[in-house]
């Protein structure tokens, strides 16, 4: 009877150890997957953001030149484009909580 209990407890320990090892391996794979998704998303965001930023700069310069010709002064054109950029910046600042909520909800779906 004592041997039977000993064998049963040994089997239970083996099963417990296998469970812990399997869980550890699963967690390592899950962490790797989450890191891969996060890094991939960051690289794509950086690459796309860089080109969009460059495009916006060129549009702003072209708009400033065109408005400068319309106003008769390049300085006034640059001021107008700068003012428009500031207005967009203030709007985005005022909407920051909505943007945070949107980003968190999207990230929660991924993770």
Automatic annotation (TrEMBL):
Spans traversing the lipid bilayer: 45-65, 77-95
Keyword terms of this UniProt record: Membrane, Transmembrane, Transmembrane helix
Domain of life: Bacteria
Tagged with keyword Membrane: yes
Record's protein name: Superfamily III holin-X
Organism encoding this protein: Winogradskyella maritima
